[in-house]
Amino acid sequence: MNKLYSLVFSLTIAAVTATAGVTPALLNLVMPDATVVSGMNVAQSVTSPFGQYILSQMQSNDTGFLQFVASTGFDPRKDLLEILAATPATGSATTHSALILGRGVFQPAMIIGAATEKGGTVTNYRGFSLIGQTGETLALTFLDGSTAAIGDVASVQGVIDRKLAGATFSGTLAATAVAVSAINSAWFATTTPLSDFMSTKQAGNLGGVAQSPLMQSVQQASGGVQFGTAGITLSADAVTASPQNAQALVDVLKFFVSMIAGNANAPSGVASVASSAQFSVNGSTAHISLMLAEAQAEQLLMPKAAIKHPRTPPIAPK
Question: Tens digits of per-residue pLDDT, 136-185?
Fold first, then answer.
């Protein structure tokens, strides 16, 4: 794996350990036609037991990982502070646009050097270096020593344009992102109907569900995960076309949860977690939340890691 893709991989892995709060400066770099945004704040994650557990599972003694850190000057366990991802409405079956923004402590010169040493290319766009690979559409740039952007070339160039123009990201999606990030450790928000994410081709056996009137009535959604001292809480809100649709959605979810809770063959812990789910309706919005104790979270979300890797003290972020 080359250095550019290693950096992308490290950003993604570290994102799993994040906690609440979106930085306005990052949010303002999002494309104006974004329909989905999600974010995480890595810096605060080590204060939670689950965040510490995730960090402890990173194989810090792996030779390839150590070489990556030495050549780039970037250690995702302590140098990545926040991540923000966005997807626009534009695109097709063969062309996809996506953007990942990172806030942290970066060494651009070292990373550029490591990338070019492995065959990477560097081009200039309005005074900023775009790091890429010949024949690939992925690009990486650093706006400064604390802000990185990764995505397709057009999306990364758009970030630079917005940075230089002093643009702001506003509207319904921006407001929802600010609100949901304030109460969650890892969060998402979308103004795109859920049925758009679950086309028949992409969803496989769920294609029929995606095309159901009830699923098509879900016009917006948001939610996230909050890491606490005793465990983690998952919650989600779905804005539907009417209060009747919201109640119908809750009724369907309750039915599925009751089936899981009553299934004697369900994996250990799944039934108890399902039975703890809470539902409510507020106007046209359906809400669901459930709580996982720390031990349950480790067992259900990372069972293989729990077996193979004992806990080790994590490295705190700078």
Answer: 889 999 999 999 999 999 999 999 999 999 999 999 999 999 999 998 88
Distance of CA 110 to the CA centre of its chain: 26
- Round to whole Å and give the CA distance between 239 and 49: 32
Q: What is the pLDDT of residues 151-164, one digit of tens each?
A: 999 999 999 999 99
Question: What are the C-alpha distances in Å from 219 to residues 106, 222, 243, 252, 306?
Answer: 38, 11, 13, 17, 38
Q: What value does the mean pLDDT take over residues 35-50?
A: 79
Give 50: exposed, middle or buried? Use CB within 10 Å, 0-12, 13-18, 19+: buried
Residue-wise DSSP of 265-283: TSPTTHHHHHHT-EEEEET
Give helix 3-15 / helix 63-72 axis angle, nearest 10°: 100
Q: How far apart are CA 34 and CA 48, in angstroms?
A: 31
The whole-angstrom separation of Cα 170 and Cα 209 is 32
